[in-house]
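Hi there, hope your week has been kind to you so far. Do you reckon you could talk me through the fold, stretch by stretch? Thanks so much in advance, here it is.
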Amino acid sequence: MYRSLFLIGLLGMLSLRGLSQCVVTQDAQKRVITTCRYYDSKGGFLMNRPDRSQSMTQVTYLGSEYLTFPVWQPGTLETGDSKKSIPCLIAFNIATNVVKCRFEGDEQEYEVQPDAFTVNDMRFISQVSEKGGQTSRVYYKVLYAGKTRVLKQLRCNLIVPKREAYTLDDPFDGTFRRQKTYFIQRNNDRPRTVSLSRKSVLSVLDDPASRLDQYLTQRKLDVLQLVNAVAYYDGFQE
């Protein structure tokens, strides 16, 4: 029943996803790898169906575009139209910012846009983004949630190097590289980018009494120091 209510609550933002041509596994050295196979025509166009003019091509990349390994992990989805969290298996693609789920007893993959979701004790919230007349959601991992929030956005890019003669023995055709960006969000406003530095934090958080200025003594911060600084700031907010 809860799943039906959740599907209704998404207001048609669910769409079926086909089977992927890429598989994420681990190699003998426990490294996460992505193997993709496709048919490459003589003209250079990729086709879904093979014919006599096509050959099978396989590429292997180090890493994955997904948040976790294994890709599918138990989690919960949340939407404003439902008061209950909906359990499902979740795969979060941080390269495309796409959340997919599989409900119990249903092997079909669904692409969803929940308000928030939790996977492996990591909670993600969303902000609505509009571009070209289309609405989508950007997801942020919650590092601290008080009056002020500390958020982290994870992104992933595939780096494909130019093949040189001396690198032909490299077993990988490319590498998925992750980037982390930190944000501070006040009063449900738009998250503001912050770097791990004293100067950046002070520029984002207003503190006329300079209490935070006196609290932060180091120029460079780590993530824990960033979270502690925001928690300290929250302590003297009305």
